[in-house]
Each structure stands twice: as structure tokens, then as C-alpha cells.
Amino acid sequence: MIVDTLKVFVTVVEQSHFSRAAEKLNLSQPGVSLHIRNLENELGSKLLHRTSKHVKLTEAGSILYQRAKQILALYEEAKEEIHLLRNEVTGSLTIGASFTIGEYVLPHLLADYTMDYPLVDVYVTIANTEEISRGVRANELDLGLIEGEVEFPELLVAPPFAKDEMVLVAPNDYPLCSLAPIEPKELQDQVWVFRETGSGTRAYSDRFIMESGLRVKRSFVFNSNQGVKEAVMAGLGIAVLSRRVIRKELASGDLSEIAIAGKKMTRDFSILKDPKSPSTMAVNTFIRKLREQEKTNAAGSQ
């Protein structure tokens, strides 16, 4: 079926590699190569420049890639409309989520979503906010769930679906933990533990430090929430993390919270979607489920 071949072609382009495309599609690499060869023979044009490290689109390949994305989207729409005749939601859903959302919000949501819509194939990518935003912009992801500021505001699906409380945490023996709520100026010349550049959590930490006029004595950088937590528990320094990330550690006494006087530390959780891409039933039902769950969570925490 030509749709299958176009799907192989699009995956090769987006993965920039035959073997990675084969792994994602659960096909053999020779099988992927055969699809591409047959497509080039049918169109009478070379579609890809291939090297041992990556593939690159030819001019003809670029034209086909854009049209193939449209054809595949229309095919998915047609399938959904047909299945809707039987009141079924089908198709695929490719979600990208930043680390905090992907690790602490998405798993519970997907458990409910897949129970209600078992015919939808769900694929999840977890990366930092910047990488997820770029994935949505490149049409590699149907939806992006990110925290904090939006790099590409034209992709924003408003309003935010949740508020996220941020917490300044420290090792239990940290001097400031024994005090009542402190003024930000008391955090001068501290050692900090950060997420990597491109992370929504890192962006929030940088903004907090800048707005508070703080000097950083020294810093350590980790590319995961777990790494930051472990570093703080080991005594490397202090960090700002989502309360969702450190809830268990605060309850167990493995970490301590440093309260900041008169400062409300929150950020938005936002949904990114390219408005030019078709909004499938799988996408629409997921967004609705997401908003319903977070509304229920917010009501339960009051």
C-alpha cells in the first residue's frame, strides 16, 4: 500500500538514518531500503542523498516529504471518520513532554487515556522544553507538553492546562533550612544545582536568581530531575524544582524546603500544537482528558 511506503519515507527523513527508521517502524533495514528504492523507481527521481552517517533530502525528496505529510494526515483523518461511524477513536498520537511533565504527570494520564481509547497507538518522547518545542515545530510531534516559557508562541494552545508550584530545596543539614521564611537576599553566594540549558526548570531557576539579584558562588548542572535531586540530597547545593518532582522526598524527610517570604513560585504547564496540522480525534480526546484530569487534581488539592 502506498501509504505504508510514504510512512517509511517520512520516517527515514525525520530520523535522518535508515537503521533508526527501521528500528522505529519495526522493519528490517533492507526492508526500509526496498521501500525507498521502489518509491524512487516509481517517481523516476532520486529522493535521498545517503551517507554512512545520515540521509539528506534532494530537491525532489523535499517536495515529496511535504506532500507525504499531508497525504498521511488526510489518510488518518479518513480512517478516523470511518471509525467514528462505529463511535471509535483510532489512529496514532505522538506526544512530546518535558521531563517534569513526562515523568510525573503523563504516566498517570496515559493509563486513563489508553483505557478509554484502546485503539489509539500512543508514542511518547521525553526531552527538555526546548527540544520538545522544536519537535512540534518540525511536525515530528502531534503535541508538546511543556513547562515555563514558550519558545515558539505561534504553537501555543491556550490557556495553560495547569499551574505548577516550584520549591527551593536543600539538604536537611543546610543552615537556611532551620529558619522561618527567608528573604531572597539571604541566598547570596550559595552553591546551586541546575538542570541543563533548554530545560524549563533551568529557565525558571535562572529567572529567579536574576530577579532576586543573587550571586552564585558555584554551580553544578545535571540533565535530569533525578540527577538534581540526588545531587541536592548528597549535599552539593540547593535547587529549584517542581513540587511534583520532590513530593516524596519532602514527605520522607530526605529533602528540606526553604520557604521564600512573600513570593509565589509558580509556572504554567502549556500545550503546544502546530495550528496548521490537522486536529485528529486522538489529539482532541487527549487534550480534553488532560484538562479534565488537571482540573480534578486542582480541585482535590484545595
Describe it.
β7 (190-195), α8 (200-211) and β8 form a beta-alpha-beta unit. Strands 3, 4, 5, 6, 9, 10 and 11 form a 7-stranded mixed β-sheet that branches. The protein has a two-stranded antiparallel sheet with strand order 1-2. Among the domains are: 1-86, Winged helix-like DNA-binding domain superfamily/Winged helix DNA-binding domain (Arc Repressor Mutant, subunit A, Orthogonal Bundle); 164-266, Periplasmic binding protein-like II (D-Maltodextrin-Binding Protein, domain 2), CATH 3.40.190.10. α1 (2-15) packs across α2 (18-25) and α1 (2-15) packs across α3. The model has no long low-confidence stretch (mean pLDDT 90). The protein is α/β, with parallel strands linked by helices. The protein is built from 11 helices and 11 strands. Belongs to the LysR transcriptional regulatory family. It comes from Paenibacillus residui. This is LysR family transcriptional regulator. Residues 1-58 form the HTH lysR-type domain. InterPro entries: LysR_HTH_N, LysR_subst-bd, WH-like_DNA-bd_sf, WH_DNA-bd_sf.
Topology (elements, then pairings):
Layout: H1 2-15, H2 18-25, H3 29-43, E1 48-50, E2 55-57, H4 59-84, E3 91-97, H5 99-104, H6 106-116, E4 120-126, H7 129-137, E5 143-147, E6 156-170, E7 190-195, H8 200-211, E8 216-222, H9 225-233, E9 239-242, H10 243-252, E10 256-258, E11 266-272, H11 281-301
Parallel strand pairs: 3-4, 3-5, 7-8
Antiparallel strand pairs: 1-2, 5-11, 6-9, 6-10, 6-11
Helix pairs in contact: 1-2, 1-3, 1-4, 2-3
